Amino acid sequence: MTIRPGVLSYRGGLSPAKMHAHHSVQVLIARRGEFIMADAGATIVTCPAAVIPADTAHEMVQGVVNGEMVQLAAESADGVELSRTVAQPGSAESWAAAGAALIAELGENDWWADGLPYAKPGPAAMRHPALTAALRRLPDLIAAGPVRLRDVAAAVDVSESRLGHLFTAEIGLPFRPYVRWLRMSRAIDHIALGHTLTDAAHTAGFYDGAHFTRVCTKTFGLSPAILIREMTFNAGA
Questions:
Q1: Of 70, 157, 167, 227, which has the fewest CB atoms closer than 10 Å, so is most exposed?
Q2: Are 195 and 203 within 8 A, CB to CB?
Q3: DSSP labels for 143-185?
Q4: Rounded CA gap, 47 and 35, in Å?
């Protein structure tokens, strides 16, 4: 499992999960067999892949032993683009149709590249110097607590609106969601190093362990405990 701003990616077993929703776009792909999904209207579908928009209630009725799950920030360019492929956001049949269209673009042994299967590496774009400076500052700032766009903009000598635009245009993720994912990534990294949930939460600028748990669960539909379990599983694979 890997996590970085805007993307959480996991390869392995996809387990059953009761009806829930989270503030991220979820993509599920079975590498063997098919899984069974249900929507809030009790429609059940069996499919090899699904794209589920953010904040949409869904249930994994039956999982698979070999698959991939990718969570994309709802506000990210990739998350928005994938959500547009779902004709009816609350429909399990639409989730399956969008998933089928997605895997049609995959080769037999293709996995995800940078969060999306059709993402192709290209020449690195030159970032605005102010954005580069802001990205360098953020890892140190998040440990101190709240991080405000206006303060970061002032520190790198651009207007608040300009820096906000740069995050969306060049990173593909607005400032606030970027900071939120950065915090979660740091907290999870510290837990993986053996720190307690509370210590990791404080290091990442959350108020306490409970605050981190709430944000993590709301974003991914998974508690830190489940994420830690999956990380431990992958580390030994």
A1: 157
A2: yes
A3: GGS---HHHHHHHTTS-HHHHHHHIIIIISS-HHHHHHHHHHH
A4: 6
Confidence (pTM): 0.85
Domain match, 145 and 85 both: no
User: Mind listing the pLDDT tens digit for each residue in 113-169?
Assistant: 545 554 444 455 688 999 999 999 999 999 888 999 999 999 999 999 999 999 999
Angle at 141 between CA 136 and CA 144, to 5 degrees: 165
How many distinct structural domains can be found in the chain? 2
Q: Supply the angle between the helices 224-235 and 209-220 in degrees, to the nearest 10.
A: 80
Q: Report yes or no on 203 lying in a domain.
A: yes
Domain ranges, residue 199 = 129-235
Neighbours of 86 (CB within 10 A): 22
**DSSP, res 130:** H
Establish if 121 belongs to a structural domain: no
Q: Which of 119, 131, 136, 123 is nearest to 170 (CA)?
A: 131
Sign of CA dihedral 81, 51, 230, 120: negative
How far apart, in whole angstroms, are the C-alpha atoms of residue 28 and residue 79?
14
In a domain, residue 119? The reply is no
| Angle separating helix axes 224-235 and 175-192, nearest 10 degrees | 60
Residue 146 inside a domain? The answer is: yes
Residue 28 shares a structural domain with residue 91: yes
Regarding whether 229 and 173 lie in a shared domain, the answer is: yes
| Buried residues in 51-63 as b, exposed as e (16+ CB within 10 A) | bbbbebebbbbbb
